[in-house]
Structures are given as structure tokens and as C-alpha cells.
Amino acid sequence: MMRKMKVILNPVSGGGLSAKVWKKIEPILIQNGISYSYEATTKDKAAKDIAKEAVKQGFHWILGIGGDGTFSNIINGLFENGKLINKNVVFSPIPAGRGNDFIKTVKVPKSPTKALEQILGGTERFIDLIDVTYTKSDKTKGKYLCLNLADFGMGGEVVYRVNKSRLGRFIGGKAVFLLYTVVCLFSYTNKKITLTLSKFEKITNKCRLIVCANGEFAGGGMWFAPKAKLDDGKMDLLAIQDVSVFETLRKFGNLYQGKLSEDSKVISKQITELKADSDEDVFIDVDGENMGQLPAEFKVIPKVLPIKC
What we know:
With 309 residues, this protein is of the alpha+beta class. Helix content is 30%, strand content 38%. It folds into two domains: 5-122, Probable inorganic polyphosphate/atp-NAD kinase, domain 1 (Rossmann fold, 3-Layer(aba) Sandwich); 129-303, Tumour Suppressor Smad4, CATH 2.60.200.40. It is built from nine helices and 18 strands. A six-stranded antiparallel beta barrel has the order 9-11-10-16-18-17. Helix 2 (47-56) packs parallel to helix 3 (68-77) and helix 6 crosses helix 8. The mean pLDDT is 91. This is DAGKc domain-containing protein. Keywords: ATP-binding, Kinase, Lipid biosynthesis, Lipid metabolism, Magnesium, Membrane, Metal-binding, Nucleotide-binding, Phospholipid biosynthesis, Phospholipid metabolism, Transferase, Transmembrane, Transmembrane helix. It comes from Leptospira biflexa serovar Patoc (strain Patoc 1 / ATCC 23582 / Paris).
């Protein structure tokens, strides 16, 4: 049976890169005789809404073109009440974003045509997601599924600023992330956060950054969790504690080399769930998008998302 493919594209991803990527891969779909329907996100219709509609209309193959935020938004549309709306659905990612971190873990090439070739010949497998329950500004609870990596503390602040910035189209995504990371390095004050890792383990400390990683990379190539596996039923926790600006700068080199977890001021563990709370405003970033603030809960749902790549 040939699956019906829905192509979902975010036209603003990577400063308009995704439309160019689509021009390159559309002929290949046609050559391969794959029947597809194509839709771009708009201000009123997010990738999540398009994906939800598509699976309900009987599309079984969802091809996303964009960055981590777009992929994450799409997969959120495939689920209702924590379950796949259509259990025969499969998701495939084509990179065209600012960060492109998720594809590094699934080993999808950056070249759109090579990525599509790999996807068409790829095997299907199931990967984990992290279920995030967060607090909205009106103090009600929100829910979102994390595909790649969630973090809070300084990282949430960085993403908050990156997403408000227009600099990406001039200096590129990696540079914008780096710029705001440096800005926040000097301006962010560490917050007192209580982490509950299990019924028996509680940590309260001033923290700079807490990461819950499903994939290995985030922030345009920062290698947070070299040991992370997408299908091991665990998330990698990194808690960078009360470090100064200069200590953080020193740790930065380690971050790009994947050596951060070896640091004495960093708590590094593999866990299945985490509760986090603070009396201060601590923002959360899920896959490069702002997702409310603490208190929050993070919980691994093992092998729940079917991907083909």
C-alpha cells in the first residue's frame, strides 16, 4: 500500500529557507510517483493544526520541512490525549530551520535531496517523547510533547529573546543563538529551583540551566547529551548549578565538545520523570519554542512516535 503523504512546510523557518528546500525535493517526489498534498503554515493555522487535520483525513505519512520548532509542532498534532490519532501514521523530517538539531541525532543529512533519498529508503522505528506539563501566564496548566530537548532557566530566557529577534535573517540562526546566549550569560541571575527526580530524590539549589534531553543536540549544535538515545525510555538530565559568568564561559567549550556532564558543578543523570518548581519566574523552552514557566513536570513516554528516516 502506498501511503498518502502530507507535506507540511513552515514558510518562515530558517528565514524562508523551507520554500527553497521544497522546490528542490518536490521533483523527486513526482519522479518517485509519490502522491502528496502540500500545505504551508499561516498565522492562523499552525503546523500542529495541519497535521491533526491531515491524519483525520487519512494521510498516513507526514513529511515536515522546517526546523526543530516546526517538527515539534507537527508531532504534537499527531496525538490526542497522549495517543496517536492514527496508529498507522509515520513522521519524516527534512531540515530547513535555524537550529536543525533534531536531525543530527536521527542522522538525517543536511542536504534536502540527500535527506529525502534517505527518508524514502529509510526504515520505520519508534522513538520516545517527553511529555511536558507547564504553567501558563494565567496560572492554568498547558501540555506539550517534546521531540528533542526541553530546558529551563537561562536557556528558556535565551529562546525567549531569540524568538523575539529579527536578527536571524541577517546573521543566521547559529549566530543569533550565540549572541543571546552571551547576552544572557552576563545578564541572567541564577534562580533557586527545586527538582524532584523521584519520590526519594529532591534537590533544591540555585541553578543556571536545567536540561531534559531526548536528543543529543540543541541551540544550533551545542552537544548537551552525548549519551542520549531517542528510544531508551529515559531522558538525560543536566543541571548546571550556581555557576558564575566566567565559569559558564569556561564550560561553553565543553558544551560544544559534549563534555559538559563531566563537570563537577553539573548534575548529570538519566531519569524517566522530573518535577520542577520555583518561587521565581523561570521560563521553559521546548524544542526552541517558549512553553510557559515553572512549576512543570517532564515525563518520558517510551517508543510512542513512529518515524521514517
